[in-house]
Design brief:
The termini are far apart. By secondary structure, the protein is an alpha/beta fold. About 40% of the residues lie in helices and about 10% in strands. The chain folds into two domains: about 220 residues, NADH:ubiquinone oxidoreductase-like, 20kDa subunit (Rossmann fold, 3-Layer(aba) Sandwich); about 70 residues, no CATH class. β5 and β6 form a beta hairpin. The protein has a five-stranded parallel beta sheet with strand order 2-1-3-7-9. Strands 4-8 form a two-stranded antiparallel ribbon.
Length: about 400
């Protein structure tokens, strides 16, 4: 493993100046909600020392996450990987193949024992002994157990690695599970874990988390699902360029109607933006060119758990959530308030249909006040809000 005595001289011929490096570091610091003073620290850290080793395991996946990863920009992911990190194993990007590739992985793991970053792309099949996906004659689970054991930290890239994704959709014939689920079960070593869900994730999300780890040797602030709050802390809806049409109640009702041609809100066409945490509307794809809603397609909620099985696509949330009693304006207002509370706080982990709740509605206020469920401790409701939420959830009974 070579050491970088300096970084800028080799990059100068390709137009990568210190100013460019600082601009990139400033952008990363901003995206990760770091103070401006972090930019020069990040630049210095990126220039110094031996490049950290990165081992990328691809399991049940479509290569979409790798495609997204290679489209990071400012700088390109090639610069990050070739000059700041050492990508020692990646099925798609490595030159070696067969036994040579496996030997390179083993050598990197031995040389960087306890210090390498492990990236997992794709879900892990465990049904029938894991026969549905194998690498070099070994099951995905077997390979993951070996690599996770000596890793410094693990990055689960994409919804398949973070939540199971499409392979885990009903009826899940391969027994696909996520990295976090295996870790919770004790089937792989417990290591610092960050989930970057999305189908695929936004390119800059991947490169920024890598840059943060290079600087601080830890991941950025994470939410209850182990996602970086800086990218997943808000919904797509909150930052959508069509949001003003939502407020004006101007909706496209068909993909080719006048509203669609005018760029109106896609809520009625099944947009899941209000219940999906991601920064698509801010950072987009293809160097910030566009994202699905801007291109005229509703958000599918791909960065949320179970999005393939949740309530179907192209159905408005209004059709899924129960209606208010006709002719009762106060009941309708209460329903709207309850639905807003539900969408903003509950739907990320539960179905959009409250009928699928197991807990009786009258126990909801007590449960939320008790703080007995870890993922609920961040929720802060007034007594009035708890009453509204309780009444909203009663509609299923």
């Amino acid at each position: 493993m070579r050491r970088l005595d300096t970084t800028l001289p080799p990059l100068t011929p390709i137009g990568f100046s210190r100013r460019t490096l600082l601009k990139y570091c400033t952008a990363v610091a901003s995206m990760l909600a770091l103070p401006a003073t972090a930019a020069p620290l990040l630049a210095n850290r990126l220039k110094q020392g031996e490049r950290p080793a990165l081992i990328w395991l691809s399991f049940q996946e479509c290569t979409g996450c790798t495609e997204s990863f290679t489209r990071s920009h400012a700088p390109t992911i090639e610069s990050l990987i070739l000059d700041y990190l050492s990508l020692d194993y990646h099925h798609t990007l490595q030159a070696a193949a067969g036994e040579a590739a496996e030997e390179a992985r083993r050598e990197a793991m031995e040389h960087h024992r306890g210090r390498y970053l492990l990236v997992v792309d794709g879900s892990i099949p465990i049904a029938d002994g894991g026969v549905y996906s194998t690498i070099a004659g070994r099951s995905n689970l077997d390979l993951l157990q070996e690599c996770a054991g000596d890793a410094a930290a693990i990055i689960a890239i994409g919804s398949c690695a973070a939540h199971g994704g499409l392979p885990a959709a009903h009826p899940n014939p391969t027994g696909a599970v996520s990295v976090g689920e295996l870790m919770a079960r004790g089937e792989i070593a417990s290591r610092p874990l960050v989930n970057l869900p999305g189908c695929p994730p936004i390119p800059i999300t991947i490169s920024s988390v890598l840059a943060h780890y290079l600087l601080f040797e830890r991941f950025p602030d994470l939410d209850e699902q182990q996602r970086p709050r800086s990218f997943y802390g808000n919904t797509v809806h909150e930052r959508c360029p069509r949001y003003h049409f939502y407020e004006q109640q101007k909706f496209a009702l068909k993909f080719d109607d006048e509203g669609a041609r005018k760029g109106w809100c896609l809520y009625k066409l099944g947009c899941r933006g209000p219940v999906t945490h991601n920064a698509c509307a801010v950072y987009k794809w293809n160097q910030g060119t566009s994202f699905p809603i801007e291109a005229g397609h509703p958000c599918l909620g791909c960065s949320e758990p179970g999005f393939w099985d949740r309530d179907g696509f192209y159905r408005s949330l209004d059709d899924i959530l129960p209606p208010a009693a006709p002719g009762n304006e106060s009941a309708e207002a209460a329903r709207d308030a309850g639905r807003q509370l539900y969408e903003e706080n509950c739907i990320y982990c539960h179905s959009a249909d409250p009928a699928q709740f197991d807990t009786p509605a009258e126990k909801i206020p007590e449960l939320l006040r008790s703080g007995s469920i870890r993922s609920h401790r961040r929720l802060e409701f007034s007594d009035d809000q708890l009453e509204i939420l309780q009444q909203f959830l009663k509609v299923r009974e």
